[in-house]
Amino acid sequence: MAREAAGKPPEEILLDWKREQASLKARVVDQDTEAWQLDPAFSGLQRVGGVDVSFVKDDSGSACASLVVLNYPELEVLYEDCRMVTLTAPYVSGFLAFREVSFLVDAVQRLQEREPCLMPQVLFVDGNGVLHHRGFGVACHLGVLTDLPCIGMAKKLLQVDGLKNNALHKEKIQLLKAGGDSFPLMGSSGTVLGRALRSHDHSTKPLYVSVGHKISLEAAVRLTHSCCKFRVPEPVRQADIRSRDYIRRTQEVQGAPDPQSGRSKEAQRPKACPQGVSEEPAGTSKGTSAGGKACPRF
DNA sequence: GCGACAG
DNA sequence: ATCTTGTCGC
Domain tally for chain A? Predict the structure, then answer.
């Protein structure tokens, strides 16, 4: 029988988790590693991904993990993967990755097997990167495990290392006048852990952006702004919408049809595949290592 | 007892 | 995260 996500884990487990975070943290790259990240218009960037996990209302063990891939700069959905999963670990602030990240890694691996050509060049993660109790949030964790550039994006300020959502912080938010405006989040250690970003002109509540892996904070903030049609970056927003929709469809009972059904006009069918790479003789692993479809560069 | 608490 | 409708505004 599958264990259920129960109360807070014993101290012994938390120590294990902390040791794992410390170990993986050594592999985080907090600078730009890709050419497109340095380009003012991000030219060369064609695919951005987003991940999210949504939960079933009265079942702390069931959730839907989703990965979506959008083209850039159009931000149209090219790929969607929603999958019901059984959660093992409870949510503990500072250890979000131990609850969710394995399912996100699975989704990335499925994409690699099914449609390697659609592998995103960067992933937006719903949660923090280095803006974290021990400098290793879920965006770093997923980045290190997949080796993909990742951006941490939280909707609320995690009050760590002296950061506080107090009156002074709120004053700084008031000074953000236009989409793209931001200010640094400086920890007591003197390190900038992330930036509060006004993600677009008509959004008052900021996003908290931090480095996940293989991207600089500056590029992460600029790209986040560039991917916002609304407050939340489109990749994460689509992953959220589609995972919730998936749960709603799954939980729908025959005898009690939901009067709200036909509501989500946002979740439409993915567009057709990009580069007309229809078939490739199997066994010719040009673009990638794992077996399955190949992804030729020319 | 009080505040904090990514998702 | 989830519980929840209408409502004000462009």
Answer: 1
